[in-house]
Each structure stands twice: as C-alpha cells, then as structure tokens.
Write a structure and sequence with these properties.
With 312 residues, the protein is mostly helical. It has helices at residues 13-48, 51-86, 88-97, 99-121, 128-155, 168-172, 177-203, 208-238, 242-250, 252-277, 285-310.
Length: 312
C-alpha cells in the first residue's frame, strides 16, 4: 500500500513525533512513579492512622487522576496521530509485529482507568485494606504498561538478531528492552517524587511537619530511581547499535544535548540529596518549582536524544 507524504515546513514531521512523545512521556512516567508513591504513602498513612496525611493524599489523588487520565489520554491519541502521519509504514509494521503487545497494553490501560477511578472516588468508602490493594493494582498495571510500551519502542532502536519469522517475544526481548525498562522505571520514580514535591509544597504551607514527611518519603523512592536511571542509561548506550552511536558522535547538537543531560541529571540528584533528604525544610514552593523544571529538562533531553537516535 502507498501512503501520502506528510510535509511539515520547517519543523519536519519526525520533530512532531519527538515533541508529542516527550510531552506524553512526562505524564506517563508520572502515572507510573506517582502511582507507586501514592500507593505506598497511603498504606503508610493507614498503618499510622494519620488522618491529616490521608487527607493530603486524597487531594493528591484528585490531582493525579486529573493529570494522568485526562491529559495523558489526549496525548496518547496525539502520539498515534503523529506517528501514523509521519511514519505510516513503520507504524503498520509495529502493529503487525506487536499485535499481542498492543492487546496486552490495552488490557493494562483498562485496569489502570478502573483502578484509578475506584481509588479516588471510593476514598473513605473502601475499608483501608481494600483501598490500599486498589492503589497497588493501579501501580502494578501502570508498571506493566511501561514494560510493554518500552519493549516495543526499544525494538525500533535495536532489533538484535530478530528476523520476521521469529515472532513477538524475540522482538520484544531485544537488547534494548531491559536497559530502557530500568531507565524509565527510575525516571518514573524521580518524576513521581517531583510532582509530590511540587504539589505538597503548595498544599501544605501550613503543615510544615507533614510537608517534611511527604518530601522525605518521596525522596527515598527518588534516590532509588536515580540509581536505576543511571544504570539504565549506561546499558542503553552500550546496547545502542553502531549506527546510533555514530549519530550521537557525529551530530554536534546531540553531543551538546548529551552533555546537558549529564549535567541536568547530576543537578537533580544533588538537589534531591541536599534538599528533601538532608534538609527537608528546603522544600518550599520556589525550590520545588526549580527542582520540577530541572528534572523535566533532564527527562525531556534524554527522551529527545532517544528519539533522535531512533530516527522516527
């Protein structure tokens, strides 16, 4: 079948893919990392019978549902629209090769939506045990969604020894899958913490002790995420095919972005350690906004480099 060519003056159609993909990744990572932090802290608050902690988490759950279900759904449609127009043949092949993967993804997405709505709208009506289980169901479904999508996008960068007759699973478990799962899981935990820092610093201005508690609990997960992100980033580079490594070395703009991501990631880790972990009192709205911006700049730069090397 022949497809028309989508001509975008100046910006180019692949650049549209990168822009929409980066925006979608911001929200998708928050959906994964934020759900883990929300489920964990809800379980903690129930265990300690801390009503003020639970009330704050209920407010964060409303913010979480609004961002991850509404905005993310719009961007999800946008991703399919842009890749379908910019790279129709590649999109067709991805659909054919990964039919099972897309089916699993839509199942996890339905579970995510149902669990997220139940978690928020039945707050106070579920008993604590059921409520916590619902939160972890959402977190588990969100993580499964990350794994499935990452395996598919990783295939676009390095197919390994896969041949058309090898089928779905060999295509899915390509050399890039595990490194990218590690990097994206780590990035999700870090971004989830950044959203908690920002939201709590604005909502808990009159409850300094609870603000410190939320910041410290979120920071613990974020530090673990930083380790995963660094390890996954190294694995990503090692398993990048020679053509991708040549693109990184040969393009001066990508070299600049590569140095930028190292600097931004280092700044994020340092701010995480000297701020919420060592000095919880630093978690003011100004600090949280700056932290939020630097963390998103690091994530966006990394995703842009990945898209550029993948050549969508």
């Amino acid at each position: 079948m022949h497809y028309p060519f989508w001509y975008v003056p100046g910006l180019t159609s692949p650049m549209w893919i990168a822009i929409v993909a980066v925006l979608h990744v911001y929200i998708a990572m928050y959906a994964v990392g934020g759900s883990i932090l929300l489920a964990f802290q809800t379980q903690l608050a129930y265990r300690e019978r801390d009503t003020s902690y639970l009330e704050y988490l209920r407010q964060h759950a409303w913010f979480f549902v609004l961002i991850t279900l509404v905005f993310s759904s719009l961007l999800g449609v946008g991703i399919w629209w842009t890749i379908g127009l910019a790279s129709p043949l590649a999109t067709e092949e991805l659909i054919h090769v990964f039919v099972l993967g897309w089916a699993m993804e839509y199942v996890t997405f339905i579970v995510e939506i149902a669990a997220a709505f139940a978690f928020f709208y039945y707050w106070g009506r579920f008993d604590p045990k059921t409520h916590v289980i619902t939160g972890w169901i959402y977190a588990g479904a969100a993580f499964c969604s990350l794994v499935i999508i990452t395996g598919i996008t990783a295939f676009q960068l390095n197919i390994g020894s896969w041949k058309p007759d090898d089928g779905f699973w060999k295509a899915f478990w390509n050399p890039q899958t595990l490194p990218q799962i590690a990097a994206r899981t780590g990035g999700s935990l870090m971004l989830g913490a950044l959203y908690f820092f920002l939201h709590s610093s604005l909502k808990l201005t009159r409850n300094a002790s609870l603000l410190r508690r939320v910041g410290q609990e979120s920071a613990k997960w974020a530090m673990g995420g930083a380790v995963l992100t660094i390890a996954g980033g190294v694995g990503w580079y090692v398993n990048t095919p020679p053509s991708g490594q040549a693109a990184l070395v040969g393009a001066s703009a990508l070299n600049i972005l590569a140095f930028a991501i190292f600097g931004l990631t280092a700044a994020t880790v340092v701010m995480l350690y000297v701020g919420p972990i060592r000095n919880p009192g630093w978690l003011t709205p100004g600090f949280a906004i700056l932290f939020f911006g630097i963390g998103h700049a690091a994530t966006g730069t990394g995703e842009f480099i990945r898209e550029a090397v993948r050549k969508p």
